[in-house]
Structures are given as structure tokens and as C-alpha cells.
Amino acid sequence: xxxxxxxxxxxxxxxxxxxxxxxxxxxxxxxxxxxxxxxxxxxxxxxxxxxxxxxxxxxxxxxxxxxxxxxxxxxxxxxxxxxxxxxxxxxxxxxxxxxxxxxxxxxxxxxxxxxxxxxxxxxxxxxxxxxxxxxxxxxxxxxxxxxxxxxxxxxxxxxxxxxxxxxxxxxxxxxxxxxxxxxxxxxxxxxxxxxxxxxxxxxxxxxxxxxxxxxxxxxxxxxxxxxxxxxxxxxxxxxxxxxxxxxxxxxxxxxxxxx
Length: 259
Known about the structure:
alpha/beta
């Protein structure tokens, strides 16, 4: 059985499509949350996931925040200089798509090739904390899985959120993994590739591949010209998807790119 494990797509359809083109054949797609926000194509990403018939999907903290902002309608009234990518996303989504995001569960379980899996976006909400010992693993597993999963001899948890691709082995048959982000890496990691994992017959392989970042940059330049987007929001994008060396780099001259 082949399972594709993804997380943190963040409205980046170009990265998602690059992965799905590379991994055309699979038995199950596992997604660990943050479908939207901090990208520029939320509707297209949602549609792509909705078209996947064999998928286990959970909600992330950016998904949750977008739903909250939508219902407060703050995104409709963001003044110049305070407009954020979440507002940008919500202007490009339908109410039905917001409802779809809101309907995603916070956790899900499945079994494949003798392994029982728990899928969640975060270990502890509001933090980047991870599971460091078998005792914490056992407690979390029993709190979030049905009883028939408790005695499974081989167990794996899938987390997203940190954007750091890794596998932690805490004991025989006791592992947790993070596929990394399909979209962007943390500030201390200059890699620009899309990260994900493939699990074939229970064996985990870490994968990454390049994707076209130009569409995200083009929209960032458009927002720079419009003068509405918060400066820090644009700085993140010029770092994540462009060649800015850090977040302190001056914003580029908006006349330097056409379109």
C-alpha cells in the first residue's frame, strides 16, 4: 500500500500540484492540516483536496483562524497596512468553502500495512511542542484514538505545524512523524522545495521537490503596488518564495517587476 503524507499546503496550489504530479498513483492521501492561509490560491487548493476520493484530512490552526476571521467579517474591513494573507484568502473563497474547512476534524485515524495511525495538526494547541517520551506518546494516543486502537502493536502519529520534516522513533512500534511543509520552510531553513513523505508497505521515505514560486511572488508584488498589505506579511513572502536573505531585507522596488 502506498500512502502519501502531506501537511501545511497553505493555499500554495503550485507546490501541491507538483507533489501530486510526481506521485500520481497512491492508495491513500493523508493530510495533517493547514490547507489555507499564507498562500495565494485557497479556492484551488480546497478544490484539489475535495477531488481526492481516498483521503484522510484534518484541520490546522491556520484553517481554524481563517474560519474565525470569516465569521467576524474582519477581512472585509481591514485598513491599509493591516491587510493580511488570511484576508486575501477569504476574499477568494466562497462561504461553502469556508464551511468545508470548518467541517474538517481535528484528528483522524486509519490503518495501513499493519500500522495504526493517528493524524493531527499539533501535539499541543498554541505551541510547537513535540512528543519526547513514550509516556507522553501513550497518553496522547489513548486520548485521541478509539479503544480498538489502543493495543495496536505498531503505532504512528502524524503531525504537521512545525514545517520540519522528521521521524521520531520512541520505541519498537512507537513513532511519530512530520512530513514537513508542502509550501514553505521556517526562517532558519533556506530550502525552498516542497516537502512530503511517501509510506510504501509501511516503509517511510522523505521526499522533496522544487515547484514554481513565481506566481506567489507576482501576487506579492501586486500587493506591494496596491499599498494595502501589511509590510511584515510581504516580507515573509519575499523570504519564503523569493530571494530575500532574511526578514530585515528592504522590500523591493515595486516598479522592478511588471504585471
